[in-house]
Write a structure and sequence with these properties.
8-stranded parallel β-barrel; about 15% helix; alpha+beta
Length: about 725
């Protein structure tokens, strides 16, 4: 799940939204993940209720306890709002967060580059075939470019879209401006003529850099003596490559005429370059502007490799953070070829998120860095009214997965090969997130771990310690089996997390089988799968700790309307369409012990060895003794086999059950799950431990029954005639 962070840091204190301690629904906490892009309903029977995006937004506010990511169409304080955070990265293209951090460091005369990890030697690795990052300076595209056509004060400075969408016809004394987050030592301009064969004659360019803040007056834009200093001059050709020695005292400055056209960012400063075009011939066009590439990309058959240059301070003889030609020629470490430190940042080229992604891994190994980042987040959350935040891509850490290097790839700050960095980074990330939890008594600090079991992989134990809630994006689906990683018998880890007081957002989907997946988008199929998913949630639910969201068959989240490929009716606000609202309104109380004389469920480890039962409050796994909340699951019926080596009585199919004060949860499944034939052909009739009514998808109750027939992968919620004592 990836969205743009749309917030302006305002250093002010507002009341943090209340903790989600008063549930909307009586027996289940509920959540939204990534609200936003609300739309008026277009489905005829929904238009009155949702006639505007704001009505959708207000409905969402009143139908969940917490909101993770996203935004509303109106100011809200009712729902606990949780932000995004990616503490393992900062963007090369500086946004709100990066500008703030750099400003804070400059105030104390500290180096911004200390926030990053760097390769000490040139590091080569495969480059996947994708376009992630290709619209950023990492691949030569200027961050911000603008143009001014003449000297007149009335002529505005106009932003250009980078890369250039079409060639610009050049006029005399036309001025280009480039804004860069980091110093650069050259660029390439592509020119062409409308009339082929035309010569460039005496055309040239002057390049200068801004020495102080630039405001909107004509004088400030043109005054060479006080505001600008020359870098170089060059004649024009089709491909005009220019380079210069970057000034040691080159300041970062504001550029009002350009920044006023951008989203306002507090403390925004850039290295600003001015390019003046002199006496161009008629018909001359500017076709492209490219920054120097500091990555060496090579082709090997149908595959590409990239080399990230290393930075070694021993090569920087005059300690100006730039390796000039003389220093380069006499490098002590010839395996470090970066000219600037930023060129050696740990950037997972080819493994980023989008064409606009330019992220660099942060250095969380210093107390000062962790404090600076924590202070920023604390202020940001208070200003925006967030109760905390969660990391949506926890696996993206520096290590052998993101950097499958062909050579050692030593990290300068750690003096370790990149392939050994992962476990150390987990520990520091955990230390940082533990620090975030301490900054507020009601702080939600979480991560998306999907269906990952953090107790079966020793290297991930720091992850569990660092967070107090988890988003389980791929945790429930309407064809869950008993065995394997996706199976219920390995969901014991959820009850271990509950014993540790961890909160969980359990997301249900229709992506991995079920009526909708196998038989299509009909009202009946959606009712079946929504009912089944909610029943599975109630099997897992730990009241006050767990929150539920029903989703569809994709990972494209928002509050926009349904379409024909993700619901049985188009034009309905998604969260209103998917949430089993009518069923959630029914109070089934809290989980209680199983009725007498029904067998408990045995949990298994990754090798399918029994490690505990649903009655236990302790289990042992990976040489750890862990507390666990008893789930009180029991088998209402089960068919076993004596032929499997890992368990003498392995259920080949079963009706797994859990009892609530005012409810009974049943789910009929098989060993492996996701079996279309089992879904379509299997049935079982079971006697119930009392008299019950079936809770229908519309919230109504069926006739009184004492037995029920279930089809394959069907989950139901039954309401007893006499509540349990």
């Amino acid at each position: 799940m990836h969205i743009l962070k749309q917030a302006i840091l305002i250093i002010c204190v507002t009341a943090i939204s209340p903790m989600a301690n008063s549930q909307i629904y009586p027996s289940a906490g509920t959540a939204w993940v990534i609200t936003g892009n609300q739309q008026s309903a277009t489905a005829v029977n929904w238009q009155q209720q949702f006639s505007s995006p704001e009505q959708v937004s207000r409905w969402e506010e009143n139908h969940a306890d917490i909101n993770i990511g996203g935004h509303y169409q109106h100011a809200t304080t009712k729902i606990a709002r949780i932000d995004y955070m990616y503490n393992q990265k900062l963007e090369w293209k500086m946004g709100i967060k990066e500008q703030y951090l750099r400003h804070q460091l400059s105030q104390s005369q500290q180096d911004y580059e200390s926030l990053f990890l760097h390769f000490q030697n040139d590091t080569t690795m495969p480059l996947p075939k994708n376009t992630n990052g290709h619209l950023t300076p990492l691949y030569g595209v200027p961050e911000v470019a603008a143009i001014k056509n003449n000297d007149s004060p009335a002529t505005p400075v106009r932003l250009l879209t980078m890369p250039l969408q079409k060639a610009i016809t050049v006029v005399n004394q036309q001025t280009l401006y480039l804004l860069s987050s980091e110093k650069i030592d050259g660029l390439t301009l592509q020119f062409n003529h409308q009339n082929k064969g035309q010569k460039f004659t005496d055309a040239s360019i002057d390049i200068a850099y801004a020495t102080k803040a630039i405001d909107s007056s004509s004088a400030d834009l043109k005054n060479e003596d006080t505001d600008w200093k020359a870098l170089t001059k060059s004649a024009l050709s089709n491909t005009t490559k220019v380079s210069w020695l970057p000034p040691a005292s080159w300041p970062r400055v504001t550029f009002t005429p350009v920044l006023n056209q951008q989203t306002s960012v507090a403390h925004a400063r850039f290295f600003v370059i001015k390019i003046t075009i002199n006496t161009p011939s008629v018909g001359l066009q500017l076709a492209g502007i490219d920054l120097p590439s500091w990555y060496n990309i090579s082709q090997h058959g149908d595959k590409q490799q990239v080399t990230i240059p290393g930075w070694d301070p021993v090569n920087d003889i005059n300690k100006d953070n730039y390796i000039d030609d003389r220093e380069y020629a006499i490098r002590k470490n010839t395996q470090a070829s970066a000219r600037f430190p930023y060129q050696a940042r740990l950037v997972p080229l080819g493994r980023m998120w989008s064409p606009q992604s330019s992220f660099c891994y942060t250095n969380l190994f210093t107390v000062a860095n962790r404090k600076l980042l924590a202070d920023y987040l604390d202020q940001h959350w208070q200003a925006q009214g967030f109760v905390g935040a969660y990391n949506d891509d926890l696996y993206r850490i520096p290590g052998k997965v993101q950097f499958p290097s062909n050579n050692e790839g030593k990290v300068l700050e750690l003096q370790l090969p990149i392939k050994q960095v992962g476990p150390h980074y987990w520990q520091q990330l955990s230390a940082f997130t533990q620090q975030l939890q301490q900054t507020g008594t009601a702080r939600w600090i979480g991560a998306n771990i999907s269906n990952l079991n953090v107790f079966t992989e020793p290297g991930l134990l720091p992850v569990n310690k660092g967070f107090n809630f988890f988003v389980r994006e791929d945790y429930i689906h309407p064809s869950m089996g008993l065995a394997h990683r996706d199976g219920l018998l390995q969901r014991w880890e959820h009850f271990v997390l509950a014993a540790q007081g961890k909160r969980n957002i359990l997301m249900a989907n229709t992506r991995k089988g079920g009526k909708v997946s196998w038989q299509g988008h009909t009202a009946a199929n959606w009712s079946h799968d929504k009912s089944t998913n909610l029943a599975i949630f109630y099997l897992l639910n730990n009241p006050s700790l767990d929150f539920y969201q029903q989703w569809n068959n994709s990972f494209y989240y928002s509050s926009s309307n349904t379409e024909s490929n993700n619901f049985y009716q188009a034009g309905i606000p998604k969260n209103a369409a998917y949430q089993p609202t009518s069923m959630l309104r029914h109070d089934i109380g809290k989980p209680i012990a199983a009725p007498a004389n029904y067998p408990a469920v045995s949990y298994v480890d990754t090798d399918n060895n029994i490690i505990a039962t649903s009655l236990d409050n302790q289990l042992s796994v990976n040489k750890q003794q862990l507390s666990i909340v008893p789930s009180h699951w029991f088998y209402l019926s089960h068919k076993t086999s004596l032929t499997l080596p890992w368990q003498k009585e392995a259920p080949q199919e079963a009706v797994i059950a859990r009892r609530y004060q005012q409810g009974l949860i049943l789910y009929y499944t098989d060993l492996n799950g996701k079996n279309k034939t089992f879904s379509q052909q299997a049935t079982t009739s079971v006697k119930l431990p009392g008299h019950y009514r079936l809770l229908h998808a519309d919230g109504s109750l069926g006739q009184v029954i004492n037995k029920i027939t279930l089809t394959g992968y069907q989950g139901v919620i039954l309401i007893p005639e006499k509540p349990a004592t």
